[in-house]
Design a protein that fits this description.
The protein is of the alpha/beta class. It is 41% helix and 19% strand. The protein is built from six helices and five strands. A hairpin with a 5-residue loop joins strand 4 and strand 5. The termini are far apart. The relative contact order is 0.15.
């Protein structure tokens, strides 16, 4: 049975913050081929806001069970590995799941401490999925960074 936290919606201020972040990304010409989201309500609402800001030629919205807070990172990585190599995918999920997965990718399987704030974004370029996922952190932005870029 899902907890009440799983069904909690975004607050009005949270919605506004995501709208501002998505608009900043669009202004910066940061594009996505798809937006993959956890099925939890706040994550889905976040993903829906992003795709609506990008409008009709924007990214395709997909719900990935693997992105639940208790999801399996290996299943998420396996799903990512099946996409086209040059696809840009925005993952909308939960902490500490996403930052732990990013840390494993950029260290080749070890752990790295990455602090991903609510509404924060990171770009990881994945070089390989086998034998272990490896890649590099291209950028990490907080909501404050994105707001300052718009001002």
């Amino acid at each position: 049975m899902p907890s009440k936290d799983f069904e909690r919606p975004l607050t009005e201020s949270g919605r506004k913050e995501i709208e501002d972040i998505a608009s900043s990304l669009l202004d910066l010409h940061v594009g996505f081929d798809r937006v993959a989201t956890s099925p939890l309500r706040r994550a889905k609402e976040t993903a829906e806001i992003v795709t609506s800001i990008y409008e009709e030629n924007g990214p395709k919205l997909e719900i990935w069970e693997e992105l639940r807070p208790e999801g399996n990172k290996q299943e998420t990585l396996q799903r990512l590995s099946k996409l086209k190599q040059d696809d840009d995918v925005l993952l909308v999920g939960h902490e500490p799941y996403l930052s732990a997965m990013m840390g494993e990718i950029i260290t080749g399987g070890s752990s790295a401490h990455i602090s991903l704030k609510k509404g924060g974004l990171a770009k990881i370029q994945i070089h390989s999925f086998a034998p272990k996922p490896s890649g590099e952190l291209r950028w990490l932005l907080t909501p404050r960074h994105l707001k300052r870029m718009r001002d």
